[in-house]
Specification:
Elements: H1 2-19, H2 25-42, H3 45-68, H4 74-79, H5 89-102, H6 106-113, H7 115-118, H8 123-151, H9 164-170, H10 174-204, H11 214-237, H12 242-272, H13 277-308
């Protein structure tokens, strides 16, 4: 969660610099982190998040329309789903990074910790909530990746590169709107992901924590400060850019955080419930796949970090 926030506060700061007369990325990053601190302390984050969600869906949803107008090579796309032996470890890193950013484990901890707030009394409601969210994210991700792959295959990885096809399709005004959506999404993700830690850390010490209480807020505040310090250090002393940080940190999540969480959930499921043999087998298979994938991609991830240091 910490590294996720490190990347996203930097990306939100870059969006702020692009959209305003502000020219200093460090100041932009600090301002976005300070905004996160203020919203957590004022306890109005949920209202702001609703507005951000609406902007994100509107902007990224427009890629679905663009995809419909593209002549996608469907046969090539279909062959991508055929399993095969791949010796390109950078490709593995990309897959794990996509898993790390899509199957984002803090959401599960946030949902279960907010059980009393949402007043949900059935697991099916949690599953439906997660399913709708994951389907929406996967659909939008496919649309953005397809547009980028077809229209800007040789583009350098920058903040604005994925939005350039959108600007070409509907007008130049779409690019700042895209950056606004990216900045809002990054800020929302940077702050919101730490809510999971706001629950987990006090709970690890045996405290019953509710959203927005003192322990929750102090934990999130401390981690926001840590995130912006690490982010500024990476920007100042390495060759990482906000865009590359936004790609690399989810890979770190996928390689380290996701398999550890899967193991913990597997242990918790067997301790507190009585899953069937088929459920145990399926869950164990998922954990095994994540562990194997992490082992194969860890070396590639280390090499990627070494290139920027």
């Amino acid at each position: 969660m910490q590294f996720w926030s490190v990347a996203n506060y930097a990306l939100a700061g870059a969006a702020l610099v692009y959209l305003t007369p502000l020219s200093n990325l460090y100041i932009g990053t600090v301002l976005m982190a300070a905004l996160g601190l203020g919203l957590v302390e004022l306890r109005i984050y949920d209202r702001v998040e609703g507005v951000i969600a609406a902007v994100m869906l509107a902007v990224f949803g427009s890629y679905l329309v663009i995809v419909l107008g593209l002549d996608l090579p469907l046969e090539s796309v279909a062959t991508g789903f055929v399993p095969g032996v791949i010796d390109d470890f950078e490709y593995f890193t990309m897959i794990i990074a996509l898993l790390g950013t899509t199957v984002y484990y803090p959401n599960f901890f946030i949902q279960t910790s907010m059980n009393g707030t949402k007043d949900w009394d059935a697991v099916s409601k949690y599953r439906r909530d997660h399913t709708v969210g994951l389907v929406a994210v996967i659909g939008l991700s496919i649309a953005v990746l397809s547009v980028a792959a077809v229209l800007i295959p040789e583009a350098e990885l920058t903040l604005t590169a994925p939005g350039e096809p959108l600007a070409e399709a509907v007008g130049d005004w779409a690019l700042p709107v895209f950056v606004l959506a990216v900045g809002a999404a990054s800020f929302s993700s940077a702050t919101g992901t730490l809510f999971g830690a706001g629950f987990m850390i006090p709970q690890a010490f045996g405290h019953k924590t509710e959203f927005g209480d003192r322990r929750f807020r102090y934990t999130v505040h401390a981690l926001i400060v840590c995130s912006v310090v690490i982010s500024l250090a990476l920007l100042a002393f390495t060759d990482f850019t906000p865009a590359y940080m936004a790609i690399t940190m989810p890979a770190l999540n996928g390689v380290i955080g996701l398999p550890i969480t899967a193991l913990a959930l597997y242990a918790a499921t067997n301790r507190y419930f009585e899953p069937s043999r088929a459920e145990k087998t399926l869950f164990a298979l998922v954990v095994l796949v994540l562990l194997v994938g992490s082992i194969f991609t860890a070396d590639s991830l280390v090499q990627t970090f070494a290139e920027f240091v």
